[in-house]
């Protein structure tokens, strides 16, 4: 038997229903008394396709996923008695937007300090989409942006500051979304926890510029006769205060 073509080429979209008609092959022989039967011999190790042995119609036998395999090259054999002929069947799988962009983690965290300037990049978001073309291109946006203190580059996913962070807020929950450019659009998101840490940028300040105290010369040693008070706007150990006398303590009185 001789096929009508040496190479057949068909295109099928992924996720088509079982039994979908991919295409037909056909062979003929000069011997009119011979019935030709068809068989796929190579290129379909996973059994994704079937061929009607009498008509040569190729159909899907399983759900096809382009992300798993985008191209198949089958060998079809036509048998007429003890004589056979063969042809190649190329099947290209077209993409559907069946995958959402995927972040590596559902939750991420980053530590920042309160005095970082506007425009400082604090995090790099990254999502992947196994679809092809526009279906696999990802654009980034902020779904939740506390106090509008953050911005994200739509193409790169780089997150930067648009304002000064307040250490008194402790942390911010920023929700980052990745959307593909397919139709229909598919998207996913994750939460970035931004923890703000204090910088020791405030000196202790006394509650008065100067103090004046009068004591008796008979005041006992080690008696408490006065106290001073200072405060520090920094937090944690940066805001803890210790006191020392640095001058004027004649005779260590």
From TrEMBL:
The keyword Membrane applies. It is found in: Membrane. GO terms for molecular function: calcium ion binding. Keywords: Calcium, Cell adhesion, Membrane, Repeat, Transmembrane, Transmembrane helix. Coiled coil: none annotated. Its main location: membrane. One of its GO terms (cellular component) is cell-cell junction. Residues 4-103, 104-206 form the Cadherin domain. It comes from the Eukaryota. Gene3D superfamilies: Cadherins. GO terms for biological process: homophilic cell adhesion via plasma membrane adhesion molecules. The keyword Phosphoprotein does not apply. PROSITE patterns: CADHERIN_1, CADHERIN_2. This is FAT atypical cadherin 4.
